[in-house]
Amino acid sequence: MAKETAGKEHGEQAASPPVERHLEPAAMTTAPVPAADITVDGTGLLCVTLLLRLRDHIQDAQAGTIVHVIATDPAAPLDLPSWCHMTGHAYLGPTPGHDQPVYALQLAADARPTRADAPWHPAAKGH
């Protein structure tokens, strides 16, 4: 009776074993990425310039259009989903089987506009 398990001497409970969790990024799916309706080549561009080029290529495209973006900027896997979240377009994720990184998105009907000179910022209300 005098012997107690270490850590339980003062009414403490033994710590639960760590739980290993494997979380999938929200934008990633197991569904295949659709073929591109528009491809934007951003090879060698920083995301600032890439977003300017992307916006120019999609400005007259219809909702539902699938866009593949070739982006070698290491920040692209973070910047493209963020831009899609800000504008309302759907980020579909990376597309496998290419020599360079390619990311897919689907254009939304109710996309939120961005500033003409800075597509990484929302447009001012009333513009």
Task: Give a description of the structure.
The protein is an alpha+beta fold. It is 19% helix and 17% strand. It is built from two helices and four strands; from the N terminus they run βαβαββ. It has helices at residues 47-58, 76-87, and strands at 38-42, 66-71, 90-94, 102-106. The termini are far apart. The model is unreliable at 1-12 and 18-28 (pLDDT under 50).
| Number of alpha- plus pi-helical segments | 2
Given helix and strand content, the structural type is: alpha+beta
* Cα distance spanning the termini: 78 Å
Describe the main β-sheet briefly.
4 strands, mixed
Overall body shape = globular
Percent helix, as a range, is 10-25%
Which stretches are low in confidence, meaning pLDDT under 50 for 5 or more residues running? 1-12, 18-28
Mean pLDDT: 82
Q: What is the string of SSEs from the N terminus onward?
A: EHEHEE
Major sheet: order of its strands?
A: 1-2-4-3
Q: What fraction strand?
A: 15-25%
Rg, rounded, reads: 23 Å
By DSSP, the count of extended strands is 4
Top keywords for this entry?
127 residues, alpha+beta, four-stranded mixed beta sheet, disordered N terminus
Short description:
By secondary structure, this protein is α+β, with helices and mostly antiparallel strands. It is built from 2 helices and 4 strands; from the N terminus they run E-H-E-H-E-E. It starts with 37 loop residues before the first strand and ends in a 21-residue tail after the last strand.
